[in-house]
């Protein structure tokens, strides 16, 4: 199959499903339907938290918080994406334009095809892993209960896949079975939308890294062929560099607030999961809760790691432009070309990055700090439990 875009077919289908893809008929209806279903579940989740907000049910309360906070984070993500949908559409238009430009240049097309293959593979892997982890996480209770079924087990002990407080009796059949299936499908839908967002971040970063590789490749070509050292050649490179900077700025607009919420919310979720782990370690009867929580940890770690890795990779790639510019044979070039190189070097000093609310860069250092804070919280809990 010939690849014509960095955006994978799976990701494109997902963005169309949530109404974010441009020129999709009734996109507003799709988005409102998705958000309405999320809000309804959120209302019942927070009703459950309010009803069980007491010290005697602390472990039960903390067990319900991770998914509730994760749903809230997803609502904020897609609300922010919808508010910046024009910026998002500009980004998609830029991607299409970049592919049209490189389609007739074999070297450029080869670079972008490699990045597109990586993007498609990573996106598909995210969808698969998140779906499996979510299924194991929420079906764990049911599997364990079917294995350790006791004689006094009755309908009043039946639990829904997620902790929600419904305004009607949900224990009687067939209402209970209907709710189990509906809620499980909604959980998988939620997991699907999280994968869409993570796949989108990787896709955009890999696309801009491909464009940076093309610029670096062109500078190497100029060094090998001095007759290419013409002002029009440098003008094309400057124009491409400006487009990369604009693309990065649009990404920053799109993800800055989302990254901030991701850091805050995921830190809270990790702390809640840590509390559950400590309880399950000290309570042998809840071993299955520990196993279930491990899958939740994996998903949250990946959620945090994705955006931190994207910011780190973008910063690393932006440094390559300055390196490639300096490594050209600028001392053998005409003075006019040398002046252009100086301006490119100066412009490259400002690194491209993704920030969390313009307060901190998303990088491996940020990821390490988040993990250290979460582990410290768990260590304190373990010491005082």
Automatic annotation (TrEMBL):
Primary residence: membrane
Sample GO molecular function, one term: olfactory receptor activity
BP GO annotations: signal transduction
Native source organism of the sequence: Temnothorax curvispinosus
GO cellular component terms, semicolon-separated: plasma membrane
Keywords annotated in UniProt: Cell membrane, Membrane, Olfaction, Receptor, Sensory transduction, Transducer, Transmembrane, Transmembrane helix
Membrane topology summary: Multi-pass membrane protein
Lineage top rank: taxon: Eukaryota
Transmembrane domains' residue ranges: 29-49, 122-140, 178-206, 254-281, 287-310
Protein's UniProt name: Odorant receptor
One Pfam assignment: 7tm_6
Family recorded in the similarity comment: Belongs to the insect chemoreceptor superfamily. Heteromeric odorant receptor channel (TC 1.A.69) family.
UniProt keyword Membrane present: yes
Intracellular or extracellular location(s): Cell membrane
């Amino acid at each position: 199959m010939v690849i014509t875009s960095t955006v994978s077919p799976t990701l494109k289908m997902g963005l169309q499903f949530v109404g974010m893809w441009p020129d999709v008929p009734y996109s507003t209806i799709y988005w409102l339907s998705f958000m309405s279903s999320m809000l309804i579940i959120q209302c019942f989740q927070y009703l459950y938290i309010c009803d069980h907000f007491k010290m005697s049910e602390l472990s039960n309360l903390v067990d319900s918080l991770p998914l509730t906070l994760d749903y809230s984070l997803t609502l904020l993500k897609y609300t922010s994406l919808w508010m910046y949908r024009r910026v998002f559409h500009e980004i998609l238009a830029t991607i299409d334009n970049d592919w049209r430009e490189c389609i007739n240049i074999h070297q450029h097309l080869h670079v972008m095809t490699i990045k597109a293959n990586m993007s498609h593979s990573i996106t598909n892997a995210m969808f698969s892993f998140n779906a499996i982890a979510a299924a194991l996480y929420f079906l764990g209770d049911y599997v364990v209960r079917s294995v350790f079924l006791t004689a006094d087990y009755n309908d009043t002990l039946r639990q829904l896949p997620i902790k929600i407080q419904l305004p009607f009796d949900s224990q009687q059949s067939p209402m209970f079975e209907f709710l189990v299936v509906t809620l499980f499908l909604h959980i998988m839908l939620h997991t699907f939308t999280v994968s869409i967002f993570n796949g989108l971040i990787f896709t955009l970063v890999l696309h801009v890294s491909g464009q940076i590789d093309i610029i670096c490749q062109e500078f190497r070509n100029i060094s090998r062929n001095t007759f290419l050292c013409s002002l029009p050649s440098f003008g094309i490179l400057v124009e491409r560099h400006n487009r990369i900077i604009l693309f990065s700025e649009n990404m920053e607009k799109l993800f800055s607030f989302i990254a901030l919420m991701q850091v805050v919310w995921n830190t809270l979720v990790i702390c809640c999961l840590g509390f559950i782990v400590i309880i399950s370690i000290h309570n042998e009867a809840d071993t299955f809760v520990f196993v279930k929580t491990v899958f939740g940890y994996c998903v949250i770690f990946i959620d945090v790691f994705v955006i931190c890795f994207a910011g780190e990779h973008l910063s690393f790639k932006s440094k390559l432009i300055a390196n490639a510019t300096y490594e050209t044979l600028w001392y053998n070039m005409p003075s006019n070309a040398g002046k252009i190189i100086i301006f490119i070097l100066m412009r490259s000093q400002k690194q491209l990055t993704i920030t969390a609310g313009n307060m901190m860069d998303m990088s491996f250092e940020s990821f390490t700090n988040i993990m250290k804070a979460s582990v410290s919280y768990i260590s304190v809990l373990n010491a005082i439990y």
